[in-house]
Amino acid sequence: MMTKPRILVTGGTGYIGSHTVVELQKAGYPVVIIDNLSNSNAAVVDGIEKITGIRPDFVEADCTDMDALRRLFADYPGIKGIINFAASKAVGESMSKPVLYYRNNLNTLMNLLDMMAEKEVEGIVFSSSCTVYGEPDQNPVTEASPIKKATSPYGNTKQISEEIITDVINAGAPFKSIILRYFNPVGAPPSSEIGELPNGVPQNLIPYITPRALSDPDRYGHPQGTERVRRRLRHPRRILHPRLHRRCGPRKGPRYRRGAYAPGQVGRED
Predict the structure, then answer these.
(1) Among 13, 28, 115, 117, which is most buried by a count of CB atoms within 10 Å?
(2) Are the C-beta atoms of 42 and 61 separated by less than 8 Å?
(3) pLDDT the model gives residue 187
């Protein structure tokens, strides 16, 4: 039986990253996680193990540290794919700390692209965002919708990152790429071993409204209201599926995959 290739998941103890690790391991992929734990907790690795029965390899390090990346690739040879979730991601925070966002998000991506060429990694899936559409002319947006001026430094880092990937691929890079654009992930496995558990004050909507809903279920647990929210949001396991590793391509330009529509719109999986 052919052994499946090893996958590196950056930001793999984060919300969507941890769900992705679960799906990859269920599909038989050996996974290495790298995360600096700036907005997550190492206990997430325990949760992943409880769900899948497999403990992923975990390296606590920062992807902006090239030496740390080289040590990781030396310790875990045979990595053939990267799924990159490592990034600062709060729109509001990016307005007050733009340099942090540009330094972290762009340097992380460029380091990974350098390592891919150096270590013969075959494909990358980049976690982008529907923020690249700016203020769209109409909703719902599609892959054909025009890219508009970013409304935040966070959104701009995603636009620039997509341009970097496109330029690298068109320059003849020996690997393939997929860019994911999505909004509004929400949910957790039935066991609740992992979920959206950011460090400090949450920067996303759901961690705020969940405690409120639990405190007043008669008001916020109304079936009609629940259904209205459910139609606008997406479970993270549906955003990225292991089959994407097999679909990385083509080499002449990245492939885009929309995980959801713009905010407030009904999402669907292509």
Answers:
(1) 13
(2) no
(3) 62
Q: Residue 7 corresponds to which tokens in the numbers above?
A: 């996958």
Instruction: Let me know: does 140 contact 184? Beta carbons within 8 Å.
Output: no
Quote the pLDDT of residue 247.
Answer: 47
- Cα of 28 vs its chain's centroid, Å: 20
What is the rounded CA–CA span in Å between residue 32 and residue 12?
Answer: 8
The structure tokens listed for 72 are: 């990781």
Contact yes or no for 29/7 (Cβ under 8 A): yes
CA-nearest of 222, 201, 224 to 213 is: 222
Residue 138: per-residue pLDDT:
85
What are residue 35's DSSP bridge partners? 60
pLDDT of res. 85: 96
Q: What is the pTM of this model?
A: 0.80
| Strand ranges, E, within 3-159 | 6-10, 31-35, 57-60, 79-84, 123-127
Of the residues 15, 29, 133, 154, only one is catalytic, namely 154
> How high is the pLDDT of residue 255?
60
Structure tokens at 132: 């690249």
Which residues, including other chains, have CB under 8 Å from residue 212's CB and lie 6 or more apart? 220
| Sheet with 57-60, side-by-side order of all strands | 57-60, 31-35, 6-10, 79-84, 123-127, 176-181, 255-258
Asked if 154 is an active-site residue, the reply is yes
- Sites in the chain below the pLDDT cut of 50: 223-232, 242, 245, 247-250, 259-270
d(CA 169, CA 249): 10
| 216 membership: H or E segment, kind and range | none
